[in-house]
Amino acid sequence: MDSLITAAGRALAAGDPLGALNRVALRNDPPALALRGIAMAQLGDFPKAKALLQSAARGFGPKQAVARARCVVAEAEVALASRELAWPTHRLDAAQATLQSHGDVMNAGHARYLAVRRLLLFGHLDDAERALAQIDPSPFPPALMAAHALMVAGIAMRRVRAGVAREALARAAANARQAAIPALSAEVEAASRLLTLPAARLVSRDVERALLLEDVEALFASRNLVIDACRHVVRRADTAVSLSTRPVLFTLVRALAEAWPGDVPRNTLITRAFRARHADETHRARLRVEIGRLRAMLGALAEVNATAHGFVLAPLDASEIVVLARPVEGRHGEVLALLADGESWSSSALALALGASQRTVQRSLEDLAASGMAHSFGGGRARRWMTPPLPGFTTTLLLPSPLPGD
Fold first, then answer.
1. Are strands 310-315 and 302-306 parallel, antiparallel or unpaired?
2. Minimal CA–CA distance to 169: which of 185, 191, 186?
3. Is the pLDDT of residue 114 over 70?
4. 281 — phi, psi (to 5°)?
5. C-alpha to C-alpha distances, 10 to 20, 85, 104, 145, nearest whole angstrom
6. Nearest of 201, 136, 195, 130 to residue 169 by alpha carbon
7. C-alpha–C-alpha distance, residues 150 and 176, integer Å
8. Which pTM does this prediction carry?
9. Quick check: bond before 261 cis, omega within 30?
10. Section 170-198 average pLDDT
């Protein structure tokens, strides 16, 4: 490998894409194309980076399997950064196996970290945690050790484990300082700020206040009956009942929780749960059916008792009922949570990440655009959506993931 390629590679490793381009910008041999592609990715020009990396991979001969595998890993990282979530992951798996078999432990580890990041983005926390546990970061350079700690922190935040996340971020910061890569240090700082921003709102007896992630963790560990409106779960300590697929039942239990210890009139429940302006006998009959279903779902957590005017929620073995609400209420909270990372998303990538239909996501995006909360650029398949990060709160609890103990 010639001196210019070596110098450009060192510049990229140090987070200096312009320094790398100064050395290889006019060269079209495969190693130079690969380095130019990585430099363009660091500068944010993902389409150009993808084209350069694909050209480099085609240019390497059949005896240069390691070089081609490195190009595939770089292309996978570009796809993840540009939110091309339909990118074929089997190519990354094959590249990782090639690198591992040829003794390129560092790049093989980087490929495995990309796979973990993708699982984390989709909210597959169990799979991400298992994959991360199989990676020993000790032989890696500081940059990869920082990446490992960032993923540990990301999983911990999604599982509402603030203490674990704080320790992992401290390790990530120390490794980032040792790596001396400004972009990596900025990423760690941005992740650390999430722990200082409100993650949810506590609503209890007409009192409302913001909660940090560590406050949410303490609330989940308490004996209070928590109506979690972030994930549509009713929980007490380690017992959780998911109502994520029963929106009517969750609307009813939230209305009852917000009025506790008082009751809620039947007409009010009908209006909130069924969106009916005028209640008639059919609505009242349906309300009785849904209340019966709610009683069966809550089991040993709470009772739903009838009163002269409506219904009241009575907790079992709990001192208080509280509602955990999103920092900002809205119809399209999950879409906003993904857009709030500052990256540009296609509607198909959002649909994949949320497990929803693309048309449903497109309707949400159109509503957000009409209200000025999101904007798009490009057209057709190249159309992308984004929004500035929402100030003043973290989107951790809005993202799709299971609750602790699930």
1. antiparallel
2. 191
3. yes
4. -65, -30
5. 8, 29, 17, 18
6. 195
7. 10
8. 0.78
9. yes
10. 89
